[in-house]
Write a sequence for this structure.
């Protein structure tokens, strides 16, 4: 007897968590489609990707599942869905989609316009911003962060504060090795300015700082921050939930353009972006959650005010905008919201 899945989990990104937290509770008829089989034998290249896409199209054509779901919202699902009108395609947002990703001239995003049939977005911010820049979301479903909801379900307990500031590193080795790419040079320049400002701030006010690294081992990133901050910061190596755990025990979260800052907003935690770019390409958000002036006086004033602000006052001040950016619901996790939506198509 041929096994015909109701749900196909497309691409390997967070596929295990999608199966565990979304699909298994509502159906045992599911399977995975990912590129790992092809990259294992042919390497990680465009040829493997082409073979995977051809195989995926043939598989979907033959088995006709009811739903296809992926965590790579800016990947190939946006093109494949156009071939199959009878299959319901869903993409879960996996990261901030700010101005530099939505406008191709900044060299970071795709040249093609995004086209998503059903989009489990962080908030209504994506619906309005995508439309403004000419991208298409046929059905936008603001549900918050999938990964953050898993963390909350596993470790949902308030902890005493250990750090005054949690800084989310946006380090990429390529930033410090590529000197002919104007986009990377601007990103590197931004990173250095933010690092210097934070260092001066924590040393002047004698504060406790944690830096969440993007890598899980000692390397260029670790050496850079260790050399710059010395004993002025606790460097946290990355594992599955290390950044969330550190955010949980910090008073204020700061980042240049990490998704974690938006997730912190959803939790109603104090959070601020720093974007010194000319056209607001790193953090295309309201000025209430972004520091834009590249000077210590402005940085010092805004960060100090946030640290001193009463938590209830902060929540009241940003209540509407934080939900607009990250539609987090403490009573109903994101993965349950996604389950409810998929159930509509499984009967």
């Amino acid at each position: 007897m041929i096994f015909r899945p109701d749900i196909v989990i497309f691409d390997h990104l967070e596929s295990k968590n999608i199966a565990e937290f979304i699909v298994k509770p509502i159906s045992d008829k599911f399977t995975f489609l990912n590129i790992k089989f092809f990259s294992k034998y042919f390497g990680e290249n465009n040829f493997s990707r082409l073979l995977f896409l051809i195989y995926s199209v043939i598989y979907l054509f033959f088995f006709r599942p009811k739903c296809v779901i992926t965590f790579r919202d800016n990947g190939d699902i946006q093109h494949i869905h156009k071939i199959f009108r009878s299959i319901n395609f869903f993409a879960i947002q996996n990261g901030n989609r700010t101005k530099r990703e939505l406008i191709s001239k900044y060299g970071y995003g795709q040249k093609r316009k995004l086209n998503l049939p059903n989009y489990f977005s962080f908030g209504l911010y994506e619906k309005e911003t995508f439309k403004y820049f000419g991208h298409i979301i046929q059905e936008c479903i603001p549900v918050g962060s999938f990964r953050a909801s898993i963390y909350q379900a596993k470790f949902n307990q308030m902890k005493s504060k250990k750090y005054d500031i949690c800084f989310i590193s946006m380090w990429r080795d390529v930033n410090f090795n590529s000197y002919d790419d104007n986009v990377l040079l601007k990103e590197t320049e931004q990173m250095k300015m933010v690092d210097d400002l934070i260092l001066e701030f924590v040393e002047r006010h004698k504060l406790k700082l944690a830096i969440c690294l993007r890598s899980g081992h000692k390397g260029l990133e670790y050496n850079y921050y260790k050399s710059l901050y010395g004993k002025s910061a606790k460097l946290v190596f990355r594992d599955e939930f290390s950044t969330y755990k550190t955010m949980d025990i910090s008073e204020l979260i700061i980042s240049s353009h990490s998704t974690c800052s938006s997730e912190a907003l959803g939790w109603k935690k104090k959070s601020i972006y720093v974007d010194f770019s000319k056209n607001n390409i790193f953090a295309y958000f309201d000025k209430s959650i972004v520091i834009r002036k590249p000077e210590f006086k402005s940085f010092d004033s805004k960060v100090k005010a946030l640290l001193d602000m009463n938590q209830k006052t902060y929540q009241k001040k940003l209540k509407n905008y934080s939900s607009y950016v990250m539609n987090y619901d403490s009573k109903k996790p994101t993965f349950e919201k996604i389950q409810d939506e998929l159930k509509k198509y499984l009967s």
Remarks:
- The mean pLDDT is 91.
